[in-house]
Amino acid sequence: MAASAWRVYSETKKYLQSGAIDLTTAAVRIGLFKASSNASTYTLSTGASVTVAASVGLKTQKKTLASITVTAGASAKVIRFDAADVVFTASTASAFSVKYAVIYVSGGKALCWCQLSTSGFSVTASNTLTIQMNASGIWELSGGTT
Fold it and tell me: How much is the pTM?
């Protein structure tokens, strides 16, 4: 299963520019969503606007991202947002039709999404799903001139 790159919601760019989100102090979370979710709609603006959370075993599992860093990226002209890998466990029941992971500010703005697979998949009870962040970070901001 090959996951897509993380894709930043359109509103996130505006929030970052206006200072409406401070990624170094905000409680940033990640959740899993079903294939029938609207997670890939670029115009979503809040975590609550993402529909259809993953079913049964993973439904209530939303994780806080750990080891968040906002640092220089490939060069001093690039800023990188990154976090530690996340492990979800299907506790007592299987989770069906998982397709997306969404990163958002707890109780607030939707930040970005990743398509974990081309179609929904299951995580059977007592098994885990590890979301391994890209080696180059979740996203990098660059542009402009010096």
Answer: 0.88
Quick one: pLDDT at residue 60?
55
Percentage of the chain beyond pLDDT 90 is 26
3: three-class secondary structure by DSSP:
coil
| pLDDT at position 55 | 58
Encode burial over 25-46: b for 16+ CB neighbours within 10 A, e otherwise.
ebebbbbbbbbebebbeeebee
Nearest-angstrom CA–CA distance, 29 and 17: 20
Indicate the burial class of 56 (C-beta count within 10 angstroms; 0-12, 13-18, 19 or more).
middle
Element (H, E) at 15: helix 10-18
Report whether 44 contacts 11 (CB < 8 A): yes
Extract the tokens encoding 119: 């179609």
Amino acid at 30: I
**What's the chain's length in residues?**
146
For 144, the 3-state DSSP assignment is coil
CB 82 within 8 A of CB 68: yes
Regions of the chain short of the pLDDT cut 50: 59
